[in-house]
Task: inverse folding
């Protein structure tokens, strides 16, 4: 099997990580593209001593570390409000902490593998994750609309949201109900399942809401690769079902990290 064939199954998840790390679809994909170009240019330098997914993320991390210092140049190529917002938060939280948090709680790497990726000891990774959780949770408070037709999952999401100190504006089980709730009580964040009770689409519900006002959205799906095909507009933040509570907490915090409404003065 060629190296490209080994890496292909892992690309959607790397794109998810890159977007969560940058808070921007175009910027995240740019980093992934740069990592792939580096692999093509020097395949002999690809880490062969580890699992292909680990090697792919390690290559990405090298690109991120080397170019993140040139943040101003990236902002010129991909200008976005999120860039200025992120810089305000970066004054309170180091990028390395965010990487450790995302790698362990969203991407599912062990502290040992995360340490390999960011070149830190497992002990230091655990410390970085703890620091990141404390910092992010202290910075972001908002009101959340949940679009989910499975009662037990909806209850779990409600509890997670409240544990983070957020308020739940409502739980919708259909597209129409979601839009109505959003118009009645505007949320600061939306958590949206893909397939809803009446066979309507959470994606369509979100499109309707975003046509009225801007709000960060996190999609929840059992098949994230179906939304990361590169063939249509895609979400920046994705949670994979079945999910872990810490994954939801991290993704919520990361989505709000780039949201202007929650940036402290």
Result:
């Amino acid at each position: 099997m060629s190296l490209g064939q080994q890496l292909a199954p892992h690309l959607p998840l790397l794109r998810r990580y890159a977007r969560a790390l940058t808070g921007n679809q175009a910027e995240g994909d740019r980093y992934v593209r740069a990592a792939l170009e580096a692999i093509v240019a020097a395949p002999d330098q690809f880490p062969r001593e580890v699992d292909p997914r680990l090697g792919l993320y390690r290559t990405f991390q090298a690109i991120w570390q080397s170019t993140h210092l040139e943040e101003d140049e990236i902002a010129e190529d991909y200008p976005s409000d999120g860039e200025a917002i992120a810089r305000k938060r970066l004054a309170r939280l180091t990028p390395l902490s965010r990487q450790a948090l995302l790698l362990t709680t969203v991407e599912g790497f062990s502290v040992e593998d995360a340490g390999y990726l960011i070149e830190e000891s497992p002990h230091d990774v655990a410390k970085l994750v703890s620091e990141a959780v404390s910092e992010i949770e202290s910075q972001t408070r908002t009101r959340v609309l949940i679009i989910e037709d499975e009662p037990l999952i909806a209850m779990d999401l409600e509890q997670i949201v409240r544990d983070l100190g957020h308020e739940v504006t409502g739980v919708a089980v259909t597209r129409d109900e979601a839009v109505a709730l959003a118009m009645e009580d505007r949320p600061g964040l939306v958590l949206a399942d893909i397939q809803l009770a009446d066979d309507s689409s959470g994606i369509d519900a979100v499109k309707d809401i975003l046509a009225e006002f801007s709000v960060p959205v996190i999609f929840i799906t059992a098949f994230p690769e179906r939304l990361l095909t590169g063939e249509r507009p895609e979400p920046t933040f994705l949670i994979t079902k079945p999910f872990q509570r810490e994954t939801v907490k991290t993704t919520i915090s990361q989505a709000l990290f780039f949201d202007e409404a929650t940036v402290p003065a």
